Amino acid sequence: MFTIDNFIRPHLKSLKPYSSARDEFEGEASVFLDANENNLGSLAGGVDYNRYPDPYQKTIKEKLAKLKGVKPEQIFIGNGSDEAIDLLVRLVCEPGQDEVLLLPPTYGMYEVSANIHNVGIQRVPLDERFQPVFQKIAEKQTERTKILFLCSPNNPTGNVLEHATVENLIQTFNGLVVVDEAYIDFTDQPSWSTRLDEFPNLVVLQTLSKAWGMAGLRLGMAFASPEIIGYLNKIKPPYNINVVTQGLVSDALDKTAQLQDMLQVIMDERTRLLQAFEALPLMEKVYPSDANFVLVQVPNANELYSFLLERGVVVRNRSNQPGCANCLRITVGTPAENDNLLEALHSIAATQKV
């Protein structure tokens, strides 16, 4: 049976986190003279901005708990999901000793966070269908392998990882299994957050940057057991989510009907792009997508990337990723943006330069 206490870096178990007077205070008060704030107000234009934000984002967590079907104590909120990734590596991996396991091609911040903390990296590439190979992953794990990162739907390939393989990995991996679901809103697959009570080693990451359209506010979520969340809260910066973000996010979480409308437009446009790409001769392969982007393979990705730039269209060249030779990752834009993209692609195809 997995026990998180067996994986926490020893010195963090006894760490006493920073605590403000308001963390320790329960009850009503009208005069706050504890935090050395400017009680006259804020030059930023709002009286509330002179006060430190809620360090545990209680209002947002209550709304997210109802929306996601989890308990508030199973939610960590970070400055983007990147903060949660960084804290998870810091929590269980001893620098210079432990390692994480990655399945490339995948999201680059797992590797960046490991490198920042001087944590080793093992890699088991996804197969030709961009699916994890269970046996190879099992063979790669050692007693020093503390985290397995899975991205589903995967970035940059756009596909959901097969349910049975993911479940098998969670059940057998002796360490944290982090399932990054940044693009979960664009698929009809259920979130792994619905199964937290079954798997004490499971951590699920989500974000408001994609479907919710709040990339500029930087708010990500980790869902896990209360024990894991407790440790993350222990080592995070005390006020990691600012007042403005908390207020705007709380308001946005009440607008689920508008979210569904936006999602429908994006998925309709995704279907349109997939069909248009399939009809373009310059596309050698168009990968299916469960995300808000499409991965395509072309004869010469560098040239096509440059041609699109010349026409004011920016996409992402993923050719340097394992299994993604000559591949471009193209975000689903607005209908007008997608029209511009397709017009540029048709003009490039007509010149027969790519």
UniProtKB/TrEMBL annotation:
<dbReference type="InterPro" id="IPR015422">
    <property type="entry name" value="PyrdxlP-dep_Trfase_small"/>
</dbReference>
<dbReference type="GO" id="GO:0004400">
    <property type="term" value="F:histidinol-phosphate transaminase activity"/>
</dbReference>
<keyword id="KW-0663">Pyridoxal phosphate</keyword>
<feature type="modified residue" description="N6-(pyridoxal phosphate)lysine">
    <location>
        <position position="210"/>
    </location>
</feature>
<comment type="pathway">
    <text>Lipid metabolism.</text>
</comment>
<dbReference type="InterPro" id="IPR004839">
    <property type="entry name" value="Aminotransferase_I/II_large"/>
</dbReference>
<protein>
    <recommendedName>
        <fullName>Histidinol-phosphate aminotransferase</fullName>
        <ecNumber>2.6.1.9</ecNumber>
    </recommendedName>
</protein>
<feature type="domain" description="Aminotransferase class I/classII large">
    <location>
        <begin position="46"/>
        <end position="345"/>
    </location>
</feature>
<dbReference type="GO" id="GO:0030170">
    <property type="term" value="F:pyridoxal phosphate binding"/>
</dbReference>
<dbReference type="InterPro" id="IPR005861">
    <property type="entry name" value="HisP_aminotrans"/>
</dbReference>
<dbReference type="InterPro" id="IPR001917">
    <property type="entry name" value="Aminotrans_II_pyridoxalP_BS"/>
</dbReference>
<keyword id="KW-0028">Amino-acid biosynthesis</keyword>
<dbReference type="InterPro" id="IPR015424">
    <property type="entry name" value="PyrdxlP-dep_Trfase"/>
</dbReference>
<keyword id="KW-0808">Transferase</keyword>
<comment type="similarity">
    <text>Belongs to the class-II pyridoxal-phosphate-dependent aminotransferase family. Histidinol-phosphate aminotransferase subfamily.</text>
</comment>
<dbReference type="InterPro" id="IPR015421">
    <property type="entry name" value="PyrdxlP-dep_Trfase_major"/>
</dbReference>
<comment type="pathway">
    <text>Amino-acid biosynthesis; L-histidine biosynthesis; L-histidine from 5-phospho-alpha-D-ribose 1-diphosphate: step 7/9.</text>
</comment>
<keyword id="KW-0032">Aminotransferase</keyword>
<comment type="subunit">
    <text>Homodimer.</text>
</comment>
<keyword id="KW-0368">Histidine biosynthesis</keyword>
<dbReference type="Pfam" id="PF00155">
    <property type="entry name" value="Aminotran_1_2"/>
</dbReference>
<dbReference type="GO" id="GO:0000105">
    <property type="term" value="P:L-histidine biosynthetic process"/>
</dbReference>
